């Protein structure tokens, strides 16, 4: 099988390339960064460039679409760049596949950010989805959402793929639109489309701290600089941290599953951890690292709790995460960061 991996020189994409090559498949990478993978053909170019994408898609049997601008961004001024890269790039890719009469398999790098807040339960009103958190309450240090009907405390629960989507940032909105574009393409062509909704991915080759970095990269960069990880809110916000090697294996499964698994699939461990758990684990695995500092404060667009129901990944895709949290964080603490 000849597989095109867009964004195949990036953090997650490069691990996907490793996994697909190791499985004996032919890989073509399309990325703006120069190629370094000896086992893959590399095209240096932008997924928004129609001519480059036409050449990249020629003769491929499957596409693994990893290319995207990631992270929350600095402010709303980043919106045109997110839309151009994520939505525009996906549209160019799909148009090229249409022109090529592509009849293979399409796997999209989706994200848990499409859910917004995760799933919650009120003892009186049952399962519900709270709206965006009130900035006035956040300024007072009230971090957890309450029941919109009675004001009671809520219990967070794992979020399944059929939960309503509610993106809370420009990045999240573009990731959901990528899913919608790919689903529309799949409906109009005999092409199975799998949207792998990654939860919080970490591991080697993670980019160093930038305004667009995730929390694991931010904490790892602080530890590398001999500084304490600075934990926002109270550190008890829950996420599902999944190792990049497991995410790469999930992509290989989606490319080869028989029969194909279509629609959205959560890719996660199924074991929620707090952000403070992550900070403590990184410090414990590093040498002479100062302890984390809980500094309160918050980032606009952040949600309180979102972690995965992994039943569909296990039963339909045959995926369960293999790498234990402690093992993976120890590796991250000692792995070099990329530019």
Instruction: Estimate the global geometry from the Cα principal axes.
Output: globular
Largest sheet: 7 strands, parallel
Instruction: Give the helix tally.
Output: 10
Structural class: alpha/beta
How is this structure best summarized?
With 339 residues, this protein is α/β, with parallel strands linked by helices.
Please tell me about this protein's structure:
- The structure is a single chain.
- It is built from ten helices and 16 strands.
- The protein is of the alpha/beta class.
- Strand 4 (62-65), helix 3 and strand 5 (105-111) form a beta-alpha-beta unit.
- The chain is globular.
- The protein starts with a strand and ends in a 5-residue tail after the last helix.
- The relative contact order is 0.15.
List the helices and strands and how they pair.
Blueprint: E1 2-6, H1 11-22, E2 26-31, E3 41-44, H2 50-57, E4 62-65, H3 79-99, E5 105-111, E6 119-122, E7 126-128, H4 135-139, E8 155-157, H5 170-188, E9 193-198, E10 200-202, H6 215-224, E11 230-231, E12 238-239, E13 241-243, H7 244-256, E14 263-267, E15 273-274, H8 275-285, E16 293-294, H9 311-317, H10 325-334
Helix pairs in contact: 1-7, 2-3, 3-5, 6-8, 8-10
Question: Which keywords apply here?
Answer:
single chain; 339 residues; alpha/beta; seven-stranded parallel β-sheet; 10 helices; 16 strands
């Amino acid at each position: 099988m000849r597989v095109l991996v867009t964004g195949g020189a990036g953090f997650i994409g490069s691990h996907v390339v490793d996994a697909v090559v190791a499985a004996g498949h032919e890989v073509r990478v399309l990325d703006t960064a120069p190629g370094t993978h000896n086992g893959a053909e590399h095209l240096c170019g932008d997924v928004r460039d129609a001519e480059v994408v036409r050449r990249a898609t020629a003769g491929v049997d499957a596409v693994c679409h990893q290319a995207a601008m990631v992270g929350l961004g600095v402010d709303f001024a980043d919106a045109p760049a997110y839309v151009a890269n994520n939505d525009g790039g996906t549209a160019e890719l799909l148009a090229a596949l249409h022109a090529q009469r592509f009849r293979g398999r399409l796997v999209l790098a989706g994200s848990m950010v499409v859910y917004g807040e995760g799933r919650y339960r009120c003892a009186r009103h049952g399962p519900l989805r709270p709206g965006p958190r009130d900035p006035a309450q956040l300024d007072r240090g009230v971090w957890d959402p309450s029941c919109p009907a009675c004001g009671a405390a809520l219990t967070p629960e794992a979020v399944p793929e059929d939960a309503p989507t509610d993106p809370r940032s420009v990045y999240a909105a573009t990731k959901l639109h990528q899913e919608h574009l790919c689903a529309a393409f799949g409906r109009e062509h005999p092409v199975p489309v799998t949207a792998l909704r990654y939860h919080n991915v970490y591991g080697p080759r993670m980019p160093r701290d930038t305004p667009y970095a995730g929390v694991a990269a931010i904490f790892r960069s602080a530890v590398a600089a001999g500084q304490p990880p600075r934990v926002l809110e109270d550190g008890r916000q829950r996420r599902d941290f999944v190792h990049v090697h497991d995410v790469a294996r999930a992509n290989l499964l989606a490319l080869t599953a028989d029969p194909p698994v279509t629609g959205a699939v959560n890719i996660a461990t199924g074991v929620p951890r707090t952000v403070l758990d992550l900070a403590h684990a990184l410090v414990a695995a590093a040498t002479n690292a100062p302890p984390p500092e809980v500094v309160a404060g918050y980032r606009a667009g952040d949600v309180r709790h979102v972690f995965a129901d992994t039943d569909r990944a296990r039963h339909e895709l045959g995926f369960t995460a293999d790498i234990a949290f402690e093992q993976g964080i120890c590796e991250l603490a000692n792995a070099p960061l990329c530019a």
